[in-house]
Specification:
mainly alpha; 2 domains; globular
Amino acid sequence: MIRQFALGLMLLGTSTFVAGCDDQNKKEPSQASAKITSSQAEIEKYNDYIGVANDLTRGFREALDSYRERIVPKLATAKPLNEYYVEQDNRIDRLASELKDALALAAPIPEIDAAAQSFRSALEQLSPISHELSNYADSKGYLADKGDKARARNADYLAALTETAQQEAAFMDGVDKRDRVLTKRRFDEAPKDTAAYFRAGLIFYSKTAMDDAARLFGEPSSEELRNTFETDINQVNDAANNWNAKMKASANCSGMMSSINSFLAQGRTVIEKLRNGSYEAEEKRKSPLPASLRLGTLQAGAKDLNQQFNNMINSFNRPSC
């Protein structure tokens, strides 16, 4: 099974909500000022949440899966340990601190706030046992005690990591829902036939493409899903070309177009390999490596597509033009 793609979340500019001030606000400066201040606080808080979410490309769900697959079976035997690790330890306190700072901002974001608080609490519960076991792993204490400490602390660590992974998923779901609303709003409200309109369309269509890609990778033999994904990719291509044409008059966007083209290229590679059966043939070929680590497999194609998508979104979060 291929896991759901990373979000590829967009930061908000300071004009996103401020542009809503109307004539009534112009007549009442204090009210308009309060609205702008509230909007700016909401933008700051949302961007803080986006920073946390974009830092979770490989998150606690993956850490939990890896621990269960690689470590838990070793702990179930009486054999001395020759391998032990815990993941994400150096990020736990930083993520909890970033969530604390975001939650301290007064502007409410109902889709995310409660989940962010629960995620922060889970991280704070995970922190001490993770630090304890990380030090144990880094110093190879398991070679000295044959894994006794790892076995004694396994149930508590597994429970804390599981809770963190669950709260992470709820937080990411809330951020994703908010992001989709704002992505669609930007596209709908942008003035037609402008660089801003085509930029918003490019991002909207690319996220639609990634949603459809997730469904396609779940049913790779579906011609209907493949055709839908191909339509999405063509819409991204058209929006990108129109955006680039608008931007050429004032700036050189070749660097950002490079990341867009890489995403388009990987999308078209996926379509072609599904169409000609290359993925299926590679997965039938005997190999000592799992499919996720082999070039030319469906899982590798999904991973590459996800990476190119995130690279493209990151280029828009750090624009060069």
